[in-house]
Amino acid sequence: MEEKEENYNMKHDKRGKAIVINIQTYDAPNPFELKERIWSVKDVENLKQTLEYLEFDFKDYQNFTKSQIEQLMKEQASDDHSKSDCFLCVVMSHGNEDKIVTSDNMVISFEEIMAPIQLCETLNDKPKLFFFQACRGNNEIEKRVKSRPDSGQSNSGEKISDCKPRDIQSDSGTSNTNKKTQIGAKTDLLVYNATLPGHYAFGTEAEGTFFIKSVCEVLNDAYKNIPSPNNLPLTKMITIINKKVENTEIMVADPVYRLKKEVYFEPKNVSVVITYYLINV
Questions:
Q1: Which of 280, 213, 197 is closest to 247 using CA atoms?
Q2: Least confident of 60-69, 167-176, 254-263
């Protein structure tokens, strides 16, 4: 694909790091009465296949405490990303509007997770892509649910959610700074939430969460038209993901798009990518 000023440079030596922080279990005693997120096993499996296919350096981190997540993000920010196209991070847990619960039953805000990466000098003018899979409240999309006689079930099994039985309150170390204001001041940033503020995020144990499943299905088609110049840009892929999630009739995804240019996932090695696609996708 011809390099254009309106596109990010995706021709570095490496695609970049893709890290997945997955909180599946929570230490006892569990003050929020949170269920084990056994469905996240499928999400991690799907993400690994998709992100390695897109030539990311993939690594997942399981059941981290708050301090471990803070340290991890500092380490990621201190790495040299000068030879990378971008940085991608997926965070999955139970949560509320702008925070997730860590394995030690603490809470950490989305902004706290993202802040170190936003300050990383070797990621200046490069896409920083964050995906948050967590409930953001206890509401459902009522009009859509009422239109479905089987609203308690999905086509592939019992409906589950990354919700919390009890309200998740901030601990004393968590900032209450307005998230939208902070995110709005940043550029070269995508913050993609599985659901709207105040609402559930659903899925099934067999197939994983609807949001992560949709993200992977769409990103798996990123190279579908290679080497044609009609390769899908990220903005178009987000539109398709939004439609897929909304077609569940119980969820609406919530992207915050602060990228200045378009992102095309151009393959580093076309023959390897095509072979991987034929075998795995």
A1: 213
A2: 167-176
Q: What is the pLDDT of residues 67-121, one digit of tens each?
A: 999 999 999 999 999 999 999 999 999 999 899 999 999 999 999 999 999 999 9
Annotated domain spans of the chain: 17-280
DSSP designation for 170: P
Q: Which residue has the tokens 């993400």?
A: 47
Q: State how far the Cα of 21 lies from the Cα of 118, in Å rounded to an integer.
A: 18
Locus of tokens 């009609």: 230
Task: Write the single-letter amino acid at 125.
Answer: D
Q: What does the pLDDT look like over 8-24, one tens digit per residue?
A: 999 999 999 999 999 99
Q: Which parts of the chain fold into alpha helices (H)?
A: 40-53, 66-78, 110-118, 142-146, 179-184, 210-219, 234-246, 270-280
Provide mean pLDDT across the span 113-134: 97
pLDDT value at 185 more than 60: no
Strand order in the sheet with 254-258: 57-62, 17-22, 87-92, 128-133, 189-193, 254-258
What CATH architecture does domain 17-280 belong to? Answer: 3-Layer(aba) Sandwich (3.40)
Distance (Å, rounded) from C-alpha 242 to C-alpha 265? 19
Question: Which residues are CB-neighbours of 240 under 8 A, at least 6 positions away?
Answer: 218, 232
Structure tokens given for 115: 């802040």
What is the pLDDT, as a whole number, of residue 247?
A: 94
- Residue 36 — φ and ψ, nearest 5°? -65, 135
